[in-house]
Amino acid sequence: MLSVQQAKQLIGSVILPDNTALLPLAEAHGLVLAQDIFANTDIPAYPQSSMDGYAIMFDDHSKALTIAGEMKAGESNQQKLLPEQAFRIFTGAPLPEGADTVIMQEKITLKDGDIICNDEKIVRGQHVRPRGAEVQAGKKSMAAGTCLSAAAIGFLAGIGFAEIPVYAPPKLAIIITGDELQTPGRPLAFGQVYDANAVQLSAAAAKAGISSITILRAVDTPESVRQALQEALNGAGLVLVTGGVSVGDYDHVVAAANSCGIDTLFHKIKQKPGKPLFFGCKEDKLVFGLPGNPSSALTCFYEYVLLLLDRWMHRQASVTQLKALATHLYPKPAGLTHFIKAFYADGKVTPLNAQESFRLSSFAQANCFLVLDEQTEGCKAGEEVEVHLLPI
Q1: 355 — phi, psi (to 5°)?
Q2: Overall number of domains in the chain
């Protein structure tokens, strides 16, 4: 049985498939840029006004100027400015040929149909965005490895890109096993419980940036689990199986994985919850077998599946690790690492009630795990402990 650290090191060492893809900007938000981006053209492609006002030749700013025309944003015909003339101009409009300065409309006086500049601090080039002020053709505009925020994709759209190379998320299949599971919203029969894993794992995966998620279901027979697993492998790069990963009479996941040609990389970790966690691979397909208990399944997702996804998508860690002071005593026996649902605020962490693996009520209030190493026997109030902040 592996330690938590050994299991994470193994996940960190597995070879991942090449997942670079050219995606439309609308699908790139939150992903990581896979290649440097070089501008195709100058932006702006012409000298542009940054104010509503009047375009002039700076050398004429002390003279009365005749209004010779108008330039608005989107103007497609270039105009020529002559000496002792001005053009009415609006924000975003191209400057007429010959103009090099814009006077704000609040800084002029109209006299006999001409304009007179009364801006004593005017300088050449004032209120003009030079050609290429945003980006210059052929120059690097954004570096590979940039996380594509809303502003980043807006910038790329603004310099003319409709699609970009990114590290794309894998297609995900989630297999829900268990004869006892009922779909939420339907009445429970004797012996049934509601299925929480399908919706909570889908939500966590979507939060992690996965857009292609398929839900499959299997009853507790070896053939049903094997068929679902084979179907998942045919259509997805990452597979999560919930339930059936322990050693009971109706736990068929490990045997099904073997029959599907999946190589076991580890099975069982010295941790609570989630001790029977399974991880395996088949060529470039990766498979996690998560415990069926909802709290255990979600804990394993945050601690292990996200670790893999962060590597896969070439981004920084989704789970932030820090130190905090425990507000309460929390005892445990040595031998297993415990991931305690907890709440972190202002440098302190409070372990919550209802830590059993079948219960989600405490998880619904938690924003972190208080992590107690396998060698410890818990923590005391006021003791510095390890905290994993969750991306909730």
Answers
A1: -90, 0
A2: 4
Beta bridge partners of 147: 32
Please answer whether residues 102 and 53 qualify as being in contact, where contact means their C-beta atoms are separated by less than 8 angstroms.
yes
Per-residue CA distances from 113 to 2, 85, 381 (Å) = 86, 12, 81
Residues contacting 283, CB < 8 A, separation 6+: none
What's the rounded Cα separation, in Å, for the pair 106 and 37? Answer: 40
Taking Cα atoms as reference points, which of 382, 251, 300, 261 lies closest to residue 8? 300
Instruction: Specify the CATH number for the domain of residue 269.
Output: 3.40.980.10
Calculate mean pLDDT across residues 207-235.
Answer: 96
Tally of CB atoms within 10 A around 366: 21
Instruction: Look at the chain and count its residues.
Output: 392
- Rg of the chain over all Cα atoms, to the nearest angstrom: 31
Q: Which one of 296, 312, 328 terminates a domain?
A: 312
Q: What is the pTM of this model?
A: 0.89
- Judge contact between 201 and 240, C-beta under 8 A: yes
> What is the per-residue pLDDT across 147-179, written as a single tens digit (0 to 9) for each?
999 999 999 999 999 999 999 999 999 999 999
Domain assignment of residue 62, given as a range? 48-129
Q: CB of 363 within 8 A of CB of 296?
A: no
Query: Do 184 and 163 belong to one domain?
Result: no
Give the CA-trace dihedral at 243, 244, 245, 246, to 10 degrees: 110
Given a contact cutoff of 8 angstroms between Cβ atoms, the answer to whether 106 and 91 are in contact is no
Amino acid at 299: T
Rounded to an integer, what distance in angstroms lies between the CA atom of residue 151 and that of residue 132? 19
CATH code of the domain containing 33: 3.90.105.10
pLDDT tens by residue, 51-70: 999 999 999 999 999 999 99
The candidate with the shortest Cα–Cα distance to 71, out of 61, 82, 80, is 80
Which parts of the chain fold into alpha helices (H)?
4-13, 150-158, 197-207, 222-235, 253-259, 294-300, 306-312
